[in-house]
Amino acid sequence: MAESQPALQSLVAEFDDVDSVSAAARAVRDAGFQHFDVYSPFPIHGIERSMGLRATRLPWIVLGMGLTGTTLALFFQWWANAHDYPFKISAKPLFGIPANIPITFEFTVLLAAFGAFFGMLVLNRLPEHHNELFDNPRFRRATDDGFFLAVEARDARFDTRRTRELLQSFSKHPVVECHASTESRAFPIWVRAALAGAGALALLPFAGIVNARFRDATSPAFHLIKDMDSQPRYRAQAANPYFADGRAQRPDVAGAVAFDHFLTDPKTLTGRDGENFCGTIPLPVSDQTMLRGQQRFAVYCTPCHGQAGYGDGLVAQRAANLQEPNWVPPASLHDPVVRARAVGQIFDTIRNGVRTMPAYGRQIGIEDSWAIVAYVRALQRSQNATVEDVPPAERASLGTR
Amino acid sequence: MTASATTQAHLEEPYARPKLVEGAEDFGAVTQRVCGVLERPKPPRAWYIGLAISSSLTLLLFTMVVYLIATGVGVWGNNSPAFWGWGIVNFVFWVGIAHAGTLISAILFLLRQKWRTSINRAAEAMTLFAVCCAGLYPAIHVGRIWVAYWLFPFPNQMQMWPNFRSPLLWDVFAVSTYATVSALFWFMGLVPDLATLRDRSTTRLKQVIYGFFALGWRGSARHWQRFERAYLLLAALATPLVLSVHSVVSFDFAVSQVSGWHTTIFPPYFVAGAIFSGFAMVVTVMVPARELFGLKELVTIRHLENMNKVILATGSMVGLAYSTEFFIAWYGGNPYERFAFMNRAFGPYAWAYWIMIFCNVVAPQFFWSKKIRTSPWLMVGVAILVNVGMWFERFVIIVTSLARTYLPSNWGYFKPTWVDICTFAGTIGLFFTLFLLFCRFLPMVAIAEVKGVLPAAHAHPEHPKGGHDHG
Amino acid sequence: MSSQRTAVENLGARGRSWGRIALVLGIAGLALGLWLGSARGDGFRRFEHAWLVSCLFFLSLSLGALFFVIIQHLVRAGWSVVVRRVAEIVAANTLVTALLFAPLVVQLLRGDSSLWPWADANTVHGNPLLEGKAGFLEPRFFALRCVLYFGIWILLGRWLLRRSTEQDTAQDAKPTLALERRAAPAMVAYALSVNFGAFDILMTLEPTWASTIFGVCFFAGSVIGFFALSILLLRFLQARGFMRASVGVEHYHDLGKFLFAFVFFWGYVSFSQFMLIWYADMPEETFWFRERFHGTWANVSWVLLFGHFVLPFAALLSRHTKRALGVLAFLAVWMLCMHAVELFWLVMPTAEKDGALVSGMDAACFVAVGGIWFFALARLAGERSLVPVGDPRLPESLAFENS
Description:
heterotrimer; A: alpha+beta; Cytochrome Bc1 Complex, Chain D, domain 2; 2 domains; four-stranded antiparallel beta sheet; two-stranded antiparallel ribbon; elongated; B: mainly alpha; Formate dehydrogenase/DMSO reductase fold; 17 helices; 69% helix; disordered C terminus
């Protein structure tokens, strides 16, 4: 054979009907050939027996995929709803089989169907972008109304002359040779370039994600869709040309009165009686007032003044530990100077601050401030009490002391 | 023996099976007949008119979707008691239509109903297009369509997972699985036919495009063997899948405690209804399609008659389910159930109920008459009535129950807005646009499968069974 | 050509002798059952339940057969012709079941409410659910409906068998064409009667409970029972030399496929019923399942889940089990047992609240009804051909091959 002649791949016989191709297939099978194939425009019933083909193992692939789907779906539903993120809803068990059946079933079918379709393609080695058989223009009949039988040259029993005779004895058409393609089987360069380019482009979004994930950003995150995270709004001191005064923040309308604030007595509001601090609490004091005062004291005062008012709150302790040079220790409420102060002055201190103590007037309401004053008074008295302060009826319970 | 078989063949049924296709007797003629539709330079004028109408409606759909997203879901008539009523009605309607294709491909395949080969391709394509229309509704009803992927479980920064015990999530899995498997099934059946188109292509462009999707198919017997096995397995998988999808849709309603929704017959009854509506849609589109594209010999009157018989059977099943529901609502003694059903039949939506009864229960009974069953345009009339009736079935179930719930203070009367109506009209346009494009660019009839049922496709067996042959 | 391959075969004398054996067994079972039932001293309450289970079991086999025969004519099936006659005989065997069932209705009419509690005025009084349907659940009306249901079943079964037998000797296809033409209305009558019959006879045992799918569940179980019985009867007859030339592995394969399909269908409808009631969790419905998960009844429920659905589903999945006749016969026996368990599970919890108890009386009733039923079956088969030899589609059925 001449060197330029490409290798003989197979001998191809053409047939016009099912019976003749089946007869030829049986003859080729009976002659002991293994590597041969029949090509037809539709599946010929019983041809696998004529050719001596074994049953495909596709059902096992499908079964395996289906069972994988069942297992995965059951496990994942349990893991997600009962383990990783358990939450009770409509009194259903976290993992109750009846409610988990539908998804398990659907996923089983999905994976099994993938098994059937992709398993078929893989076993058939498809897609295949080129095959030598297509070089023969008559082979186009294989998808229309023609039937072909190709015996491959790699079969051990293949002998060009005798095989040709065998095939020719069944076929009215001339048996043709199919040679290995002279063209390169690789895709053309432009196809490969386009694929590579598309692949590179496809990586770009991932690169963007990696970039955003691992680099410090100086500008705010870019939102394609704003949802309600970042709505347009004006800041308090910003300008807004919509209003005549150009301010975004709107002042109260003239004559507006606060809806829930009816305290008008200057003593109650300021703690002063004319020039002097008042000596008595201007609001009625009850058990509720004391409890409220205790609770508010715990919230606002204890960080510095401490639970008992000795000026040993956690902030003060930490400042002392750090030996802060500029730290002015908070006063002990049991200092005689503080004890001697009028309630109005304590109230004033809470409202407006003193030395380094900030003003709490914006945070603590008028009534609450007086409640704290009442509690501070009780606290002071508790730390300097005598037996006489205990009601006579309960003195006995003090016992041996 | 040969003689007796031949004489029998001349007798009418039941001594011999009638031919599955008429006219086209050899393989080449089948190829020519089906591919001819795609290869003619211009489609018929009616095709252009149909496409103009349906694509205008599709444009309307896209406009409505954009308007919905830009403005918010308030443009739907959601603020009445039947929250999401319109969206759910149309979702269920389209999912139902989507059942015919897979039923024809899978169940009729398993039942060896060979007449299916002429209509299964078009019916499967319809399935996919109907699923597209159905899937649109859950996607757009969320308003913020760009977060529709939250329907699926995926690891997220909130470390949350969806509730797998909720029927709404079952729906997501069922419908997406159904869409995927139907698409695989459809595509797999298309591969050999795409190879036929590839081999007949006269231009390089067509050759490349059809060739790309034909995956290098060359009709090898080894390939066919695995192909047929895969087809059988997919059919066996798709059969329970078809049952499950509309059952899961019915679970959306039936697991609740809403009167008129919580009834155990819902799953099979919804499936029967879905097949009913899907077959009606196949008849509705196949009759004009076979007229237009000259496929009368492949899609014969007998095929259509068989479809109509299935419509009659499923329509009667639906009627049986209606009567069972009504009976048990009374028999069960629950006053709310009784009220829900009386309200359906005689309440403010009675007009819808009686339209439904007429179209779904009465109209298919016309198919007892062989005349109506076998005259193309009469059957289209009945099929359209059935489609209308099945739309109203969903409307009646969903809207009447929601508009009259346990709390009378919540009662109201649902009215769709113009956006609702235009969106639904748009989905019809989308469906027909896709179908018309499919008719023009893909083989409408499964070429290889039809060839497989021609008499010439059957080889004489290698070892004839003793004493009996095919004459 | 069919005449050569399928000579007319009938049971003849052997059928008569089998019938006599069955009848003797049945009468013995009846005597034993009555004796055990009276020994309980509960006014035959438990006996009536056991009798109902047995009657329903054999009735359901006929109903499954009826469905099979009608659907074969409806779709003009070709493959099934050789196995259809046996099904027709089973389907036509409902008169005997009606006679066996009748005493229960007679007892009801005489005011015995031990089976159907709604017949007791004291139970109904003060229960608004029952008072609301007292007009429907009324003994005489109930009896009338039973007559109607059984009438439909008897007429349908007899008619199908008669016309089919006529075809054996007919010169043309007229009987077959008549069967095909009337199959559709027959199916309508069948669907209505089975659906509402199941509601009436079975569901009203628990008169406050209602489930719309109940009839479909009963139907699915019946069809499973029939396919299992059909496989076994064919194996039995073939083992004794009948029908050897006509029925082959291909037909068993198809029967196996149908058995598989209905096992799946049964699982589907039963799961739907359970899941919907479980999920909605409404006490007026859940109590029915609570009873069936109470005490040892829970074990029976689990047996049903695995024995009636999971295991047979897995076993029948492969085409090899459907074609291995020994395995298929074993699975058929298994499914018949499971079908009996299912009916026991449907009926008996109303009588045995505390747990599942099977007694010798249950077995005796089963043998009694079964014996008499098989006696009638053998008589019905009698001199008839076991294969519809005149059927125009017989050649197709004989040549049938699964691809």
